[in-house]
Amino acid sequence: MLVENVDSVTTRSPDAVRDAAERVLQRSYYSLDGASRDPGDPAWLKVLRLLLKPFEWFFDALGGLPTGLKWIVFLAAVLLCVLLIAHIGVSFSRALRANATISPRRRKERNLFSEIQGLEQAAAAAEARGDCSSAVHLLMRAAACHLELARGKSFRPGVTNRDLLRLFDATVLFAPLRSLVDAVDLHWYGDQPCPAGVFSSCRSAYFQVRDHAAEIIKPPVSA
Question: Does residue 61 or residue 198 have the better pLDDT?
Fold first, then answer.
């Protein structure tokens, strides 16, 4: 409000009223020109102009050329920039995909090495306590891990020991794998007595699979 103590102000002279009004209007919460101020351009328009500024400079630098040729050169430069950005994006995306592919494989290899070591130790412990059937079964599992490691990928879920035999029937791995599979079927699944000599035979077969898997199985090479 511009008028304070109306009764006292109305008795003053016009000059005194003007002075009082001026003092009131000088207070911080009064702004007569606030409504007339230009709010300016929106933020998105300022950002767009900033992004287009280099193109404006480039276009101005072509001032000596005919208008048609100027536009051709300008559009060619814009297209080149777009292609360059797209190439960088595609290269970056491919690098990320390659990283995502290699890292799980390396993690899998580390897990397989650890699993093989654990299975070998468990098989030796089972044989030491006279549990031959469990020892043979553990050796078969370790042999399958060596096959996965050589392939560079896991077998599909649900693959059986007999499936592995069919998969490697035309290789030198077939004979040692058959010894392991037959022993597991007979003594582990068939619950037949497992003499100590069976474990020795299966251990020799396991060593053959371990030593030759990487030589026989060649993982696919990426282009």
Answer: 198
